[in-house]
UniProtKB/TrEMBL annotation:
Record-annotated Cation efflux protein transmembrane domain positions: 26-203
Keyword Transmembrane among UniProt keywords: yes
Stated name of the protein: Cobalt transporter
InterPro entries: Cation_efflux_TM, Cation_efflux_TMD_sf, CDF_Transporter
Keyword Plastid (UniProt): no
Amino acid sequence: MSAHCCEHETPKPAQIANLTRYRRVLWIALAVNAAMFAVELSAGFTSGSLSLIADAIDFAGDALNYGVSLAVLASAMAWRARAAMLKAVSMMGFGVYVLGQAIWSIWNGGTPDAPTMGVVALMALVANVGVAWMLYAFREGDANMRSVWLCSRNDAIGNVAVFLAALGVFGTGKAWPDLIVASLMAVLALHAGWQVLRQARGELQADDHHGHAH
C-alpha cells in the first residue's frame, strides 16, 4: 500500500510500445486482485484475522487501481485526478475502519485461526508474485509503468507480513501479532491515501490553471 503504488498515473498510449499487451496484463491483474479480495475478506471474517481483512482491502485498492487505469487510459488529467481522489478517500476510510477494529479487538477480540491465516496468506503471495511476474516486462518503462510493477512487488511483502503474523499467532496463542500487522497496514493505507489525495488536488489545480491560461 505504498504511496508510490497508488500515485501512478495511467501511461499515455504514446508512451507504451505495446499498449494492447499492457492492457491485457492490466485486465488479468484486475481479475486476480478482485478474486483475492473476495477470498481474503471471507477468510478474514471466518478466521477472525484482522490482518487478512487489511490485506483484502489492499487487494480491493489494487483492483480499483487497475480498473481506473483501464477506464481512463486515454482520458484527460482532470478525470484521472478525480478518480485518484475517489480512491484516496476510500483507502483512508478503510484504514480508519481497520484501526478502529484493531483497537476494539484489543479488549473484545478473540485469537484468530492461525492455519487459515497462513494458508490464505500463501495464496495471496502466489497471486501477487504472479501479477508481479506479468508486469516485470514493463518495469523499465516510464515511471508510471514502473510504479505499477513496484506496487505488486510491495504487496507481496505485505503477504509475507501476514504469514509471519500467522506464525506469531500460532506460536504465542495470542492475537497481538495479527493486530500489529493489521495496524501497520492500516497506517500505510492512511498515509498512501493522504499522499494520493494531495497529489490529485495539485493536479486538478494545475489543470484548472492551465485551462484558464488558454
